[in-house]
Amino acid sequence: MKAYSIRGFVHAAGVVLYVAGIAWFLANAKYIFGEQEPEGPFIPIFMLLLLIVSATTTGLLVLGKPIHLYLSGMKQEAIRLLLATLGWLML
Fold first, then answer.
1. Which residues of 29-57 are buried (b: 16+ CB within 10 A; e: fewer)?
2. C-alpha span between 85 and 91 (Å, rounded)
3. Higher model confidence: residue 31 or residue 12?
4. CA distance 58 to 18
5. How many angstroms separate the CA atoms of 12 and 6, rounded?
6. Cα within 13 Å of Cα(72), Cβ side
7. Pick from 5, 3, 47, 52: which is nearest to 26 by CA?
8. In this structure, are residues 54 and 22 in contact, taking their beta carbons and an 8 Å threshold?
9. pTM
């Protein structure tokens, strides 16, 4: 169980670092790109693409290994790892 707790912590830390990086980027977007607001559909397209990439990235970090373990027949281990990851995220 300790190994799954450590692995869950690493996966949760990856999610937190990814979210913090995106939050930093969005908070500093005016400084990075300037004060001008772009015309056209670029902002909505960028935000939707960011949503898709973020959902995929965090989904892989949280669910990737547990799904692999579950499909490999290691169902208890998959549930333990998923619960450990979710526990660390809630903490």
1. eeeeeeeeeeeeeeeeeeeeeeeeeeeee
2. 10
3. 12
4. 8
5. 10
6. 11
7. 47
8. yes
9. 0.80
Kindly state the tokens that stand for 41: 């559909």
Instruction: Identify the residue whose tokens are 């930093």.
Output: 24
**Is residue 8 a contact partner of residue 84, using CB atoms and an 8 Å limit?**
yes
Q: For tokens 């790892």, what's the residue? A: 81
- One-letter amino acid for residue 77 of the chain: E
Report how far apart, in Å, the C-alpha atoms of 49 and of each of 53, 73, 81, 91 are: 6, 34, 29, 29
The residue type of 36 is Q
**Mean pLDDT across the stretch 61-74?**
94
Q: What are the C-alpha distances in Å from 11 to residues 32, 38, 87, 91?
A: 29, 36, 11, 13
Give pLDDT, residue 60. Answer: 93
Alpha-helical (H) ranges within 1-91 are 2-27, 29-33, 42-59, 65-71, 75-90
